Amino acid sequence: MSADNNPRGFAQETEASTAPEREPQHEVTPVPAVSTIPVVRVEPLGATFEAPPELTLLEAASFAGIRLPRLCRNGTCRTCLCRIVSGEIRYTIEWPGLSREEKAQGDVLTCVAVALTDLVLDVPDAELA
């Protein structure tokens, strides 16, 4: 429209002004991968190690140079029995050699347990290898 078609000086609508507004474009920054491998602290030794899901606590400790009590490595002899102070585990076998009461009070067999979260274990006989 020309200025003489708009004698009162009203703002003019154009096709461009009636088009829907576009959302502003934002740059997407990738989030760096966060390690989700649980970390286990062994007390009273004070040593820590990473416990990936494909390793039992006993295996992961051994790879980290921490010697935990062990013998059978299949959950029956109870040599590796220790106590979970905090954190969660799962077992690699259906029924490890623990009673319901022992499980409830936090006892764990490290030879058949895998860390689900960061853990603190009470293992009085643990040593650095």
TrEMBL record:
Q: Which UniProt keywords apply?
A: 2Fe-2S, Electron transport, Iron, Iron-sulfur, Metal-binding, Transport
Cofactor(s) recorded in Swiss-Prot or TrEMBL: [2Fe-2S] cluster
Tell me which residues make up the 2Fe-2S ferredoxin-type domain.
Answer: 38-127
Its domain of life reads Bacteria
Molecular function (GO) terms listed?
Answer: 2 iron, 2 sulfur cluster binding; metal ion binding
CDD domains for the chain: fer2 (cd00207)
By its UniProt entry, which InterPro entries does this protein fall under? 2Fe-2S_ferredoxin-like_sf, 2Fe-2S_ferredoxin-type, Beta-grasp_dom_sf
Disordered as annotated region, ranges: 1-33
Q: Which Pfam families match?
A: Fer2
Report the sequence similarity comment from the record.
Belongs to the 2Fe2S plant-type ferredoxin family.
The name on file for this protein is: Ferredoxin
